[in-house]
Each structure stands twice: as structure tokens, then as C-alpha cells.
Amino acid sequence: MPLFNQIVEQMPIVFRSLNEGFGQTLRLFFVTLAGALPLGLVISFGSMSRFKPLKWLTRMFVGIIRGTPLMIQLLIFFYFPGLVLKNNIWGSGESGRFLAASIAFIINYACYFSEIYRGGIQGIPVGQEEAGLVLGMTPGQIFFRVKLMQMIKRIVPPISNEIITLVKDTSLARIISLQEIIWAGQAFMKGSQGISGAIWPLFFTGVYYLVWNGVLSWLLGKLEKKLDYFR
Amino acid sequence: MKKLLVLLMAMMMIFSVASAETASDKQYVLDKGVLVVGITDFAPMDYKDENGNWIGFDADVAAAFAAELGVKVEFVEIDWDNKILELDAKAVDCIWNGMTLTDAVKAAMETSNPYMNNAQVVVVPADKADQYQTVESLADLVFAVEAGSAGEAEVAALNLNANPVLAQADALMEVAAGTSDAAVIDALMAAAMVGEGTNYAQLTYTVGLNSEEYGVGFRKGSDLAAELNAFLVKMYADGQLQTIAETYKVQAALIEQK
After folding, report:
1. ipTM of the predicted structure?
2. Roughly how many angstroms between the first and final C-alpha of chain A, as a whole number?
């Protein structure tokens, strides 16, 4: 089994490299969630605004972001400032790439989240709002005390879907040379740290995604059960 | 619509004020205090040692050049397809990675004097090597070549069948897997990656299709290219360049700097 022996020999180097890449993948994942979950709520308020220009501007923005590939958005976010405005605002090195990727991911995912939030909020029967008004509650009180928890319960399944997609979408950041796990795996095909022409590290990255998505699915399933206290 | 236009124009103005250009590229790098070098993982020019530090012929010379300028050096791995974009967007300050000086590269960048010789060679399975020792014998083969590489240009110039792939390493994999008959890659890379004692022991390289030279690319109009040329002359004169080349066993390909 020469191939098997070779893989065993390569393992320590490959795993160190893949772990490093997966660290970057996870950082991008958590930063995107931390930014996009609240920003999505703000955008959803914009797209439900009674002030028409704001509503149309927001919906147009969401339409553009959802209608174009994230890969193009990454390229534009990272290269446009330096290329057209002659001012690279991201700073040099890996940290600049991470910052640009984070912002592109946050904006992209916030737009998707905003539509899920809007569906969740608008799906609540209007009678509840009317009842709150009759009882003398302010619109703010009605949102936070009546609607918000119902909305959260309703949006858990679609948000879970997006979260799992996000784990895999982080691999797109490779286009601006962010060294996430796919990049780390591919490096061994080309030759890196004395290993060249090795294809298994790239395929093995799939195991990392699978395990992490398994953990997330389990956690999100538990959350869904916990919120299932009323129907 | 009008309001939107006004808003857009106001934003443009803010950005254009923020982007007042510095006159000299050298001054820009000195002010920043760091020379950002765009590379790929490409032994023996730029690659990582066991501790994760970038070494190689190009990496060592780049570090010496940055020290001469009095700035820090920072190596950034880039996607080779995007090298011109990376330079123009100021994401990196130079491309220093065994870059073949093609007409396209010379048109898009301010390049240094050539410092190393290279060739594009044909890689075939070792058991078929005797059949393909001349350029004429290659007519029926399908070649895997890196898209946008000098190898692809050579195959196109000879009117041979090309099958573009993402990287030179992918081209080798195609030949090993039998999905392409042959590949065209850099001689320095072929010497390091195919033949006895490598992962591609069943492959070998035969015909050289051309000869070419490596150079360093800076932003168009940059004064750093001339600065580097003077530095290379100095390093060649006191033998430092030859010493670095011997460290990485590429001394035979080194070009005299004068």
C-alpha cells in the first residue's frame, strides 16, 4: 500500500495546514454571522419603512446584492477602491483581505437575512398589532414584547438553512486569496512544504465542512425544539 | 432619481479627495514602511520552510531589497491570474515569483532587468518519451497548459491542441491521470517536480519549446524597478546573488547583472 503509506507520512504537515485554513474559515463564518444577523434586521426595517424613498432604495439594494454572485461582490469590494479610487482602503497583507471579505459577506448575508426577517414579521397576523394598539401599547412595545419572539421562532428553520450555506460559501473568499481551508488543501496539489501533486488534502477538506455543519445542524435543531413551546 | 445622482456624486467626491496620489512609488512604499511582495507557493523561488517562513531564491533577494530600502518585507500569497489586478489595486507592491517576462507582462507592469533563464518544456509519461524528442513529433498530442501561462502561449504559437487548466500542477496531474497526453510547464518547475524521486516518477520532460527570462514586476511607471536593477548589479558584483542562487541550486540559470 504505497499510496496509503505516503498519505500517513504527509498527514502531520497537511493537517497543520488544513487546521490553520479552517481557523480562517471559522473566523470568517463567525464574523459574518455577528455582523449580518443584526444588520439584516436593520435592512428589513428599511424595506418595510412607510417612508417610500427609503423603502425603494433598500429594496433596490437588496435586489442588486441578491441578484449578483457573491464572487463578483468579493472582487469588487477588494479591488475597486485601489483600482478606481487609487486608494487601497483595506490595508496590506492577509488582514486586509480578511477585512474586505468580512464586509462583503456581512452585506451579502444581511440582505438574505433581511428578507427572512421581513417574512417572519409580516407573517404575524395584523390582529395582534391592532389588539396591542387598543391596549395602549406603543409600536416599539408591540414589536419587542409581542412580535419579536414569534418572529424568532418562525425564522429559525430558514435562517439555519442560510447558516449552513454560509459555512460552504466562505470558500468563495479564495478568489481574493484569503487563505481559507480550500486554499490550504489546494496548495498541496501545486506543491507546498515539500509535498506536491497530492490531491487527497483538497478532498479531505470536505470532512471538515461536513463535521462542522453536523455540529451546527445539531445545535440549530436543539434551538428549534426549545422555541417550540407554542404553536 | 435626481437625489440619487447627487448622492452618488457627493460620494465620488469624498473618495477622490481621499485618494490624492503620491508622486513616487518608492516614496509611497517608504511612507508605508513595508514592501508587500505578491507571490505564489513556487519552489525553489518562493516557498515555506518548516517554521512557515517564506524562503527561496526570490524570497531571499526580495528580503534583501526591502532591507536596502529600509522597510519591512511582507509576503502575500495571491491568485496568479489576478497579479496585474493586485498590483494596480495596490494590494501588493511587486510581483516577485519567477515571473516570465512576456510581452503582456511588460506592457502591464514596470519590470526589472531579467535575472534568471528559464524555458518551457514538454512533459510526457516516461515510457513514451522516446517518441517525442522533436517539436515535429508533438502534432497529434493534446497538451494540458496553465491558462494564461507562457506555456499556453507557446502551444498556441505552434498551433498544437491545448487543454487549459488552472495551474501548472494541474497540468502535471492531467498527464499523470492520462486525461491529457502531455503538458507544457516551466523547466525549473519540471526539474523539481517530475522524474526519479518525486511524486511524478512516471513522468519526464523532453523538448524545450523556447527560452525565456524571469523578472520582477512593479506598478506601471514605478521608480522601484530602476532601484532594483541597481541593487541587483551591486549584489552580483559582490557575489551575494550567486551565493543565494547556490543555496537553492539555481546558479546555472542565473543571469549576469551589469
Report:
1. 0.71
2. 58
- B224 with B107, same domain: the answer is yes
- Mean pLDDT confidence for A122-144: 91
CA distance A197 to A188: 6
- Nearest C-alpha neighbor of B58 from the set B69, B47, B72: B47
Using CA atoms, how far apart are residues B80 and A209, in angstroms rounded to an integer?
Answer: 26
Residue B184, judged by CB atoms within 10 A of its CB (0-12, 13-18, 19+), counts as buried
CB atoms within 10 A of CB B154: 22
pLDDT digits (tens, 9 = 90+) for B67-77: 999 999 999 99
**Residue B151 belongs to domain spanning:** 118-212
Interchain CB distance below 8 Å, A82 and B91: yes
Both B111 and B226 in a single domain? yes
C-alpha cell at B80: 496568479
Chain A interface test: which of B77, B174, B189 (most A C-beta within 10 Å): B77
Could you give the CA distance from residue B8 to residue B241 in angstroms, rounded to a whole number?
52
Pseudo-torsion of CA B132, B136, B139, B144, nearest 10°?
Answer: 50
Whole-angstrom Cα distance, residue B19 to residue B41?
A: 32
Asked if residue B112 and residue B73 are part of one domain, the reply reads yes
DSSP state, A143? I
Do B20 and B99 reside in the same domain of the chain?
yes
E-state strands within chain A:
none
Distance between CA A56 and CA A62 in Å, rounded? 10
- Copy the grid coordinates of residue B110: 514596470
- B186 alpha-carbon distance from chain centroid: 10
Residue-wise pLDDT tens digits, A56-97: 999 999 999 999 999 999 999 998 888 888 778 887 777 889
Q: Is the pLDDT of residue B15 over 60?
A: no
The vertex-B170 CA angle with B78 and B81, nearest 5°, equals 30
Average pLDDT, chain A: 91
B interface residues, A as partner, C-beta within 8 Å: 3-4, 15-16, 18-19, 21, 32, 34, 36, 40-43, 47-48, 50, 74, 76-79, 82, 85-86, 88-92, 167-170, 172-173, 176, 192-193, 198-200
User: Which of A94, A187, A198 lies nearest to residue B41, judging by beta carbons?
Assistant: A187
Q: How far apart are the first and last CA of chain B?
A: 62
**Are B31 and B71 in contact, with CB atoms under 8 Å apart?**
no
> How far off is chain A from B48, nearest CA to CA, in Å?
6
Residue A231 inside a domain? The answer is no
